[in-house]
Amino acid sequence: MKLLYFAWVRERIGKPQEEVELPAGIATVGDLMAWLARRGDEYAHAFENPKVIRAAIDRAHVRPDAAIAGAREIAFFPPMTGG
Amino acid sequence: MIVAATIRLQREPFDAAAETAALTRGRTDIGAVVAFTGICRGSEDGAPIAALTLEHYPGMAEAEIARHVEEAQRRWSLLGVTVIHRYGRIEPGQPIVLVLTASSHRHDAFAAAEFLMDYLKTRAPFWKQVEAAGGTAWVDARQSDDSAAARWQAAPARRRDAAE
Is A8 near chain B, with CB under 8 Å? Predict the structure, then answer.
């Protein structure tokens, strides 16, 4: 599965994207954030306050309870500040 | 009728007057065009800044803007829409975003332009980083922008007649 990171989430993790093999039992976006946060200090820093992190599955916004089954691309980023 | 919209993401500046001319050229059905240009300010929270750098999520940014343009076209009678959003480094005084909405009467164009801007602020995947004397910092999302976007959910959508 392809993961993408933007803005300060990208800076904290130290890379814009990566391919990961997920273990069994990761069903939702929230599960995925909790799993990522345990991968190392940089991930723990990026996901230290998961409530502020927004996510998108295959380029559409989703909530933390969204199921990730079948997703090709999941992105994590801070609240948006465009316009 | 859903009319074609122009949606562009680009590094380069844009010319709002030229875009308006392109949208209305040869048209006599359009009676109103609202043009909103967002411009990079020279200060952020009272402190001077050197520039903004906008990061975006290629692919999703276009898709998300298109979804909101379609929603605006469902809610209001629009005869044309143009959205241009820049990314990369933008200096104070330079334009960041352009929203053009065209309709036969002003109400629809005004409302749709405001709706689109409120959603671009909170839903389009762009992030601003401020470059100032003390270094760089990511701009925090504003609660007031969330509130501005939320009021469109509370307002009953003005649906068009099926025959239209």
Answer: yes
- Tens digit of each residue's pLDDT (9 = 90 or more) over B98-156: 999 999 999 999 999 999 999 999 999 999 999 999 899 999 988 888 888 888 887 65
Kindly identify which residue of chain A lies nearest to residue B115, measuring between CA atoms.
A83
Residue B54 token pair: 């906008």
Map tokens 């909790």 to a residue.
A34
Of A7, A61, A83, the CB nearest to B117: A83
User: pLDDT below 70 — which residues of chain A?
Assistant: none
A44 touching chain B per CB within 8 A: no
Question: d(Cα B62, Cα B64) in Å, to the nearest integer?
Answer: 6
Contact B100, A57 (CB under 8 A): no
CB A65 within 8 A of CB A51: no
Q: Rounded distance, CA A57 to CA A43, Å?
A: 19
Q: What is the ipTM of this complex?
A: 0.95
CA distance readout (Å), B20 to A9, B34, B77: 37, 9, 18
Tokens, residue B1: 């009728």
CB A60 within 8 A of CB A16: no
pLDDT digits (tens, 9 = 90+) for B65-92: 999 999 999 999 999 999 999 999 999 9
Closest CA to B137 of B57, B51, B12, B9: B51
CA–CA distance, B140 with B128 (Å, rounded to integer) = 9
Best of B127, B144, B145 to disrupt the A interface (most A CBs within 10 Å) is B127
CB contact under 8 A, B38 and A83: yes
Q: Residue A11: what are its φ and ψ, rounded to 5°?
A: -65, -45
